[in-house]
Amino acid sequence: MSKKHILWITVAALLVSLCVGAQQTVVVDGAAAILNKDSAQARDKAVESALRAAVEQVIGTMVDSESLVKNNELLYDKIYTQTSGYVTDYKILSEDADLDTNLYRVKVEASVKKGNLEQDLQSMGLLMRRMKMPRVAVALKEDREDASAVLMKLLKEKGFHVVASPDSIRDKNFWSDFWNNDLEYQTNLLKKHGAEVVILGEASGNRGGRVGNSDMVSYQAGVTLKAFKSDTREMLASSTGSGKAVHVGEEGMRQALRQAAQIGGRDLVRQITSQWAKEASSTRMVTLEILKCSPDQASSVAARLQDEGRGIQDAYVRSVQGGVALIEVSMEGDVGDLAQELKKLYPKFAQKAQTANQLTVSR
After folding, report:
1. CATH assignment at residue 289
2. How many CB atoms lie within 10 A of CB 221?
3. What is the distance between the alpha carbons of residues 265 and 109, in angstroms, rounded to a whole number?
């Protein structure tokens, strides 16, 4: 077999694996009434009912039950009536026409494309609610505010809760100190202004030469972006964007910066919402900080959480320094759920602080 054929087979296998990974397969039941002895029509409606149930089941793993109840009518209008856009394949495992009850019943195995659901749920704001509506702050190192303005506008349009920068931090000296400090300083400062997600980055551009014999000038711009959880500094996403424009004046620079911010921003939003969808539908990583704790005590707490904590898949000690232990906990649920489990196991622990991704207690 030639190297070219091997390369194509490898690429095909990778594409298949990516497609499979973006899907969830479920087994569901469907039923429909047999009217006027028309079993064929009842069968079609039963299958349609099963496919809708498949989409509902997958959404149920991505969105909390409270949001499902509150938004059921909206979900029906926007999603449940368009199951064909989410179901990639299905097969009927069993079917039966019950003439005594005049019902046609089917059992169906369906593959649902989670990527499409994530995008549509995010546009409806349901994933934001599932993640408790995290507040986002944007800080870009730039000479002008074109890129940050575009990025904040994009985030708001996508349903993000953007925290506006107070006028007091628009001072140049403030930003000089800000960019000369490390990530911990930057995220902690923006966290004080209410941000649970911090987007940091840089936007820059340069002026090229004239285009031909005209007065038009070419401009190029680039944007780099990184999103972090402000409490744990875990990176959620990173992206870049580039832009080009031709104009007679500085408007060309603004156009290039806006274009770069749009491209980088869209990719960043896609990565963030994809990560949130994974956290909402499976396990997520949260941090437990224990004050007045020794290494042995930290190991004991981690072991007990893993063995007895409801919904906790794994817990391991990341560090113990100066009597402060940090334990990473992988669990189904959020920090509030961890607080409840810890209270059951260690009722004498005193809760000191709670953020979106970190719980602080004292022994």
Report:
1. 3.30.70
2. 26
3. 37
